[in-house]
């Protein structure tokens, strides 16, 4: 998922919208499909474009000064990241996860990740622990720097993906990768009050339990960790997004 914030916005009279799409291109060149998708992704996760907003191809084409074909390709990229969804004969809309969907995603994560933890404890090598501890250091580094909340959220989620990869179970890794991506999006869209410091501390404590080969304690700790992440979501905000004009939202 692309979550890099675009640069400062100033509305031009003509030409592509400011931000990532134009900043990544040379002067006078048209934005690429990838840069348009990046700019839209940043606007979505920063909630400048609210959940449920209709992403009109014609309006986006005017904003970025590109063809609808290019816009459509960018929207396909966003759909792969579960940021948008297309309704036949209606258009493409920013995803708006429901409370029920959020609960189901975390329920599925608990089921899948309990098995991942068991596999990891049984197979983990010193190199595996070194890799995950390096990731924890990256998490801590992001807390000291200027990284966006979206970047931190992605780093925290990537820990779980890396854990799955180290089990060598490809199918479980594919499943957890999608679930982590969707739960991270929900956390970003609905302004989780998750404390990144606490999440990183919990990742570190989890690794200690795994090193001790205390499988049951490691599984229980991971389940508590995921339940706390779910509890941190402000799901009362679902559906309460501020509906802005699409073009104005991209110029903010």
Describe this structure in words.
With 252 residues, this protein is mainly alpha-helical. The protein is built from 11 helices and 2 strands. It has helices at 20-23, 33-45, 57-64, 68-80, 99-123, 126-144, 149-165, 170-189, 196-211, 215-231, 246-250; strands at residues 84-87, 91-94. It has a two-stranded antiparallel ribbon with strand order 1-2. A hairpin with a 3-residue loop joins strand 1 and strand 2. Helix 6 (126-144) runs antiparallel to helix 9 (196-211). The longest helix is centred in the middle third of the chain and has 25 residues, at 99-123. The chain is elongated. The relative contact order is 0.15. Residues 1-18 and 238-243 have low confidence and may be disordered.
Give a brief rundown of this model.
The model is unreliable at 1-18 and 238-243 (pLDDT under 50). It is built from eleven helices and two strands; from the N terminus they run H-H-H-H-E-E-H-H-H-H-H-H-H.
Tags for this model:
disordered N terminus, 252 residues, mainly alpha, two-stranded antiparallel sheet, GntR family transcriptional regulator, transcription
Largest sheet: 2 strands, antiparallel
Question: Which term fits the overall shape?
Answer: elongated
Please tally the β strands and state the result: 2
Strand content: under 5%
Number of helices: 11
Biased composition (Low complexity): 8-28
Region (Disordered): 1-28
Keywords: DNA-binding, Transcription, Transcription regulation
Domain HTH gntR-type: 30-97
